[in-house]
Amino acid sequence: MAMSNVGIPSRQLYIDGEWREPVKKNRIPIINPSTEEIIGDIPAATSEDVDIAVEAARKALARDDWGSTTGAQRAKYLRAIAAKVLERKSELATLESLDSGKTSFESAADMDDVAACFEYYADLAEALDSKRKTPVNLHLDSFKTYVLREPLGVVGLITPWNYPLLMATWKVAPALAAGCAAILKPSELASITCLELGEICREVGLPPGALNILTGWGPVAAAPLSSHPHVDKISFTGSVPTGTKIMTAAAQLVKPVTLELGGKSPIVVFDDIDNLDIAVEWALFGCFSNAGQVCSATSRLIIQESIASEFLDRLLLWTKNIKISDPLEEDCKLGPIVSSGQYEKVLKFISNAKNEGATILYGGERPEHLKKGYYVQPTIITDVNTSMEIWKEEVFGPVLCVKTFKTEEEAIELANDTKYGLASAIMSKDVERCERFTKAFHSGIIWINCSQPTFHQLPWGGKKRSGFGRDLGEWGLEKYLNIKQVTEYTSDDAWAFYKSPSN
Ligand SMILES: NC(=O)c1ccc[n+]([C@@H]2O[C@H](COP(=O)([O-])OP(=O)(O)OC[C@H]3O[C@@H](n4cnc5c(N)ncnc54)[C@H](O)[C@@H]3O)[C@@H](O)[C@H]2O)c1
Ligand SMILES: NCCCC=O
Ligand code: NA
């Protein structure tokens, strides 16, 4: 087993630019999913801490050192944060792997993406200065009109455990770029690197209250944000049930939310592909990277019947070749599931699939060589029908279910046969066919001859039960802005709608 010499920092809540013990002084153990051992603990915030953090955020917006900053001034902080993340990349990546079970390779890639995302939103923050006040020309000379883009206010950012620091960055970076004051509540299953983001913000001198970080149980440390009268928006990434609760609570105050939820995305493979192995690897990466704990995982493989047998043979060979080990081991390509709870959920999905009559073509159990840790073999399930749970529900683990098709019509029907609408992928060398599927897929993300590549310049999000709103790109910034129109009457003449009493 790979050993790490990285210590787990002991942190408090990060509020108003300093570390503060939670009012109730409770803490939650940190469990390393690859060893099942307790390796530290995080503070457990309660509604009292939420109130303190919201007050700190409001004070920041009222102070010149944050509330009156230009985009260029905010960009300096974002670039300084990016630089610190890269400075601490190796340590942060190790902490991420110890906390979430993510392979060290993927954790390191995440840290690069975190830094790049902060840099990207620094550029957009600067660009905002020239777009803050946009004149709108009318056909009337007696009016002067323009649009202002202003920070939305205090925003609650609630994030999941599968990409702990990256999912948080997708929200923190644009929120700060927009000039909002944010309260981040990461998942209690993996909060270490988000707390380190607090230390980084403290070191770069981010004005107090601009970013506050509360860790703790969702219903206790995050739910109060949804119903808090002084939180102006909630940006959430997580499961559908939680998203529904947040939306319900926010609706009582007509509070805007954006929801980045789950998925059960298809990858459709046609028999006209040039290289079978290239398509096989994308199918593997699309469902087994990050141990399948990916919202956009293409966990439904839909193969044209004419190549199905050969494709599955190759898929099996590639799957058997995946290195499953301690995530800190070099070349590890599949680590553990994040927690015992999620681990049991994944195994239950597999057992239910068996009971419903599906075939476990490969995997489905704990790897022989790993007696400890929440490890599940990469699993391929065939003989699936569309009424089965394994076809319909998000597993959020390394479980790929397979169906075949004959015609394009059948393929698109199977692909869209889901209550979700996050991502869809097609493997084909027929350009027109890919065009047709790009239009026919009911999802917010389309991959052509690939699966999962993610770029911070492009909008990320879905439709149907995958939620609404977009992270990333310019869309990710717009959602933290209040768009204000200003209309000024510039004529010296009376409006003359009413008859003047003096006439
Ligand atoms: N669409 C995306 O971009 C995306 C990305 C990652 C994960 N996800 C989804 O997230 C799910 C897995 O992540 P998860 O298990 O952390 O999700 P989750 O919904 O259990 O938790 C997400 C966050 O919500 C908090 N939370 C829990 N109950 C809450 C409540 N009542 N009010 C407010 N906040 C609450 C949690 O503490 C956590 O911080 C999967 O469904 C996955 O598809 C989606
Ligand atoms: N590649 C980023 C996926 C985010 C959702 O889990
Ligand atoms: Na953990």
Automatic annotation (TrEMBL):
GO molecular function: aminobutyraldehyde dehydrogenase (NAD+) activity
The keyword Zinc is annotated on this UniProt entry: no
Pfam families: Aldedh
Pathway: Amine and polyamine biosynthesis; betaine biosynthesis via choline pathway; betaine from betaine aldehyde: step 1/1
Assembly information from the UniProt record: Forms homodimers.
Family: Belongs to the aldehyde dehydrogenase family.
Gene3D superfamilies: Aldehyde Dehydrogenase, Chain A, domain 1, Aldehyde Dehydrogenase, Chain A, domain 2
Keyword Protein biosynthesis attributed: no
Keywords of the record: NAD, Oxidoreductase
Organism (species): Lycium barbarum
CDD domains to which the protein is assigned, alphabetical: ALDH_F10_BADH
Protein name as it appears in the record: Betaine aldehyde dehydrogenase
Domain Aldehyde dehydrogenase: start-end pairs: 19-486
GO BP term, example: cellular detoxification of aldehyde
InterPro entries: Ald_DH/histidinol_DH (IPR016161), Ald_DH_C (IPR016163), Ald_DH_CS_CYS (IPR016160), Ald_DH_CS_GLU (IPR029510), Ald_DH_N (IPR016162), Aldehyde_DH_dom (IPR015590)
Positions annotated as active site in the UniProt record: E260
Taxonomic placement: Eukaryota, Viridiplantae, Streptophyta, Embryophyta, Tracheophyta
